[in-house]
């Protein structure tokens, strides 16, 4: 018997059964998926499989918190993220730069993650905040760091029988946060470059976390660099700006594209690192 081209689920358990049986394309807001479909991209070869509509699953919607984490349902829209008092400001800022209000009312954070675009606006903040993704199957679930989930352009480690259900953001007391998107417009434009930079104090030591989009095939973040420049006094960062820029310059691998040149992206990224460090030192 032929498989239906479109499938719907009434609850998460039914969705997981259909995912395990047919490995369908997951469709929630569809804002990224339909663009690829209309563009005729090779990615749309996936449509040889049925499409599973999950946008009505209330179990995967909403934002809550516990003692240690902020927990976001994968079907939560970016408009809901912007309006929630629980969401860190830096993620709100990145969400505000995504397309326009009509798209933000439909587009989901889970879709933005699973699309695995190196220019996705939400990803630098999610990487810098050490976000964890919860993936569920019919009989089990697993948590994976977002940096281990996305492996390349449009590529993730999600399994055929899994659905992303929640995004978990560990609570941290960030002393300073900074987000900047470089594009042709503030919104309704893909990023030429975006940076998320955070500074926090733990055990009487200061550390920064910096991540970029569009400087490689995935989000660019290097924890070894961050560890190297842990300090007891943020003024030491100002004295080390050139060394910090050099360290990041060595790992940046931007490419020329229709939106920007590799040289422009790299120069902007290094200047934004300097801007971030200088502003920390004035706090």
TrEMBL record:
According to the UniProt entry, the coiled-coil residues are: none
Spans traversing the lipid bilayer = none
SUPFAM superfamilies attached here? CO dehydrogenase flavoprotein C-terminal domain-like, FAD-binding/transporter-associated domain-like
Q: Give the top-rank taxon of the lineage listed in the UniProt record for this protein.
A: Bacteria
Q: Which residues form the FAD-binding PCMH-type domain?
A: 1-174
- The protein's name in its UniProt record: Carbon monoxide dehydrogenase
């Amino acid at each position: 018997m032929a498989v239906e081209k479109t499938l719907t689920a009434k609850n998460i358990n039914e969705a997981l059964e259909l995912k395990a049986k047919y490995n369908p394309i997951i469709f929630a807001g569809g804002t990224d998926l339909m663009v690829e479909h209309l563009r005729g991209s090779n990615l749309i070869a996936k449509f040889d499989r049925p499409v599973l509509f999950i946008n009505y699953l209330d179990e995967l919607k909403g934002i809550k918190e516990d003692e240690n984490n902020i927990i976001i349902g994968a079907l939560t829209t970016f408009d809901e993220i912007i309006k929630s008092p629980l969401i860190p400001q830096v993620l709100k800022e990145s969400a505000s730069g995504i397309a326009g209000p009509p798209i933000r009312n439909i587009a989901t954070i889970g879709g933005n993650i699973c699309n695995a675009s190196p220019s996705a606006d939400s990803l630098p903040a999610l990487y810098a905040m050490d976000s964890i993704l919860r993936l569920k199957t019919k009989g089990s679930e697993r948590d994976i760091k977002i940096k281990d989930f996305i492996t390349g352009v449009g590529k993730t480690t999600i399994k055929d029988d899994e659905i992303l259900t929640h995004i978990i953001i560990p609570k941290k007391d960030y002393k300073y946060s900074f987000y900047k998107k470089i594009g042709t417009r503030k919104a309704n434009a893909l990023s030429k470059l975006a940076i998320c930079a955070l500074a926090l104090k733990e055990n009487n030591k200061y550390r920064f976390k910096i991540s970029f989009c569009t400087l490689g095939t995935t989000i660019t973040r290097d924890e070894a660099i961050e560890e190297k420049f842990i300090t007891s006094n943020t003024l030491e960062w100002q004295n080390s700006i050139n060394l910090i820029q050099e360290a990041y310059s060595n790992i940046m691998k931007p490419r020329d594209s229709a939106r920007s040149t590799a040289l422009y992206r790299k120069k902007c990224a290094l200047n934004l690192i300097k801007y971030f460090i200088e502003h920390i030192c004035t706090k």
